[in-house]
Amino acid sequence: MTTTQPETRRLVVEMRDITKKFPGVIANEDVTLEVRRGEIHALLGENGAGKSTLMSVLCGLYQPDGGSLHLALHQEELCETVLRSPRHAIQAGIGMVYQHFKLIPTFSVTENILLGAEDTPTVLDLKQSGARIAEIAERFALPVDPEARVWQLSVGEQQRVEILKQLYRGAALLILDEPTAVLTPQESDALGETMHSLAASGVSIVFISHKLDEVLAYADRVTVLRGGKTAATVDVADVTKADLARLMVGRDVLFSADKPDAELGPDALVLHGVTAMGDRSVTAVNNVSLTVRGGEILGIAGVAGNGQKELVEVMTGLRTPTAGSVTVRGADLTGKSAIDFIQGGVAHVPADRLGQGLAGNLPLTDNVILKSFRSEPISHRSFLNKKAIREMSIRLIEAFNVLPGDPDAKASGLSGGNQQKLILAREIDATDRLAVGDEPAVLVAVYPTRGLDVGAIEIVRDALLNQRAIGAAVVMVSEDLDELRTLSDRIAVLHGGEVMGVVDPASTSKDDLGLLMAGERLS
Amino acid sequence: MDLDLVTSILAIATFAGASLVLATIGEIFTERVGILNLGVEGMMIMGAVTGFATAYRTNNVWLGVVVAGIVGGLMALVHAFATITLRADQIVSGLAITLLGTGLASFLGQVIGPDGGPLVGLTGPKFTKWPIPGLSSLPLVGEGFFNQDPIVYSLFVVVPVSWYFLYKTRPGLYLRAVGESASTSDAVGVSVFGRRYGYTVLGGVMAGVAGSHLSLSYTPGWTENLTGGRGWIVIALVIFATWNPARAVVGALLFGGVNAIQFRLQAEGTNLPASILNMSPYILTVLVLILITRTDKLRQTIGAPAGLGIPYHREERE
Known about the structure:
Chain A is an alpha/beta fold and about 525 residues long.
């Protein structure tokens, strides 16, 4: 891919035996990372493998509990450095581009860039600084208007502002934290080209990822983290996707899940011509018609912010459509409230676990009964039945192996994976009770595996497949194309609030999915 | 309406609005850095009582102003420690400081007079008007803007400098950035902790000094409940001014003017209840709040700092 031999280039970063502990967790243990000049170095690992912690140490946000850091970004020789704060890291030539952009929406591009720059004069001259930004933008082929307010920019443009910000302040090492998570495959390829041209001009790049394909496509070398430790550092040219997966997970990984053919039941959830407004009074869901039948998983794909949130809210009764109808198990629930949808047979595993899924300060017991507290035996008239609540909590905690399984512990004390297991336990219990007879229940799961470790992901996926097997209609919103292709029977692709197409995952390539996500209809 | 009436209303509006401008700009600094300080009323009244007591005992009004500023600053330091270091709820801490301040001021007013007696009813030193030769006899604005005491004159410097500082300088950029997003600021190397402390204390100092203007010039003297809820008007004014020092002046004059008009109306013998006029600042504030949340664009351009009221802790995992 690159013509020069990476081995001959000098080291610019060496992290030796880095250890970082959090209360109850060792996030990094004796991790070693070496980056050369002008290299694109991928940092690969599952969620929770310690990638973000390691990079937070490298950009001065966290202080390591052990190990040492050696830098040669502004000089020839490696030199041991202690980064006491992000400011130190910036001075040392390290620039971090976060997945969640560190930009202030109300500020202009120029103000955002000046915010982190070392040489910003005491009295601002926005015109002159803007001109200098435009000049750097041109040199690195990163077009952006310096006077635009950040909240007016697209996600891709905001990412360019982030990269530009680091270059403006003279970063010689760019850290990109899961930079493609918010991009379409095509935008990702454009980012790949940008990375290569930056590397060619001598900038070193570390990009964090848990996606094997993009590591193989964009990186020169890759360091794999597993369980907070370094699994290996290898040249991308020397490895296959299966090799990387084995290093990352610690065992052989199958890229397809065995699932029996769908046994389709009756229509469970029917959206007909649904249009809904978003929070900003613009049309977020536009004339969407979808039918989900019992016994199938309908995947919803799309770049974040293309109407998934609003569509899910329509499906669960949290948002009233301005046009069209929503029918659940034969009953027209258009305009009804969330409680009607719950009682009508719709379960919801929301994207925001602590925000929408659980009441963090309440114990597990209270969280378990959030959807059943109105009915016998959990309550009788207006009074809660403590004993029944406890029995139900213990039953569900054990069934889904929620750890630690203390029913009186606060829900916010659980890890992300265990929070998700608790929500699934509650929602699936609700669908189980509703699924009596021929009418299938509906389970809407939004980003169900986001941020979870491998073990928890398997539990979640098994639970979804199991629901499908017993005849429930499952809707799964995900940003992980591999997951969508593995689990779904059909995939609906959203762009700008419209369904660009409903496709069969087996016969649709990832590129075609990408085109649909970018808003192009397949001919 | 004849010219004399307008002139005199403007004069009273400026005089009454001075303490509002000072405290509002202080609170704008504090809120712009992300800290909501509902203790303004407490800090103003403590500034008023300590300022007057100091001036009475030392016969030096300037020393009174200095002590009032220090007292306001110390109270803000308590708020800063509770909300920034301990990450306590900003609303609870602010309300507690107001309750503490009003109670303590009332108590001090009973015991720090001569021989441990009350301050109420004493006549002490006060700021005198310094008419500016020539300018003070201008029609319409002469009386209001150029025949005032030195605290009012100081606003001619404080207001433009605050505005310029906030929008045109690097420290101002940093200050606004911390209030918009503390984690973003920290990540780009703008430290949050010191700025939040500094501007919270500055806001307290300005509230204290504003309080002393009431007891050393506007009223003057000490009576129970001297501030009469001006600290709450300040909180409303910050919103009315949409966190902009220049607009704060307009708001403060308007609300100061409410006082003036009230006196006039009473003198003329109308029976419009005073409460209606007293409500007007808050009604206007609600209208502004409705306005700035109407559209995305307005919220983004003149809305509240996005990080207002949100504590920050660097190593807290999301």
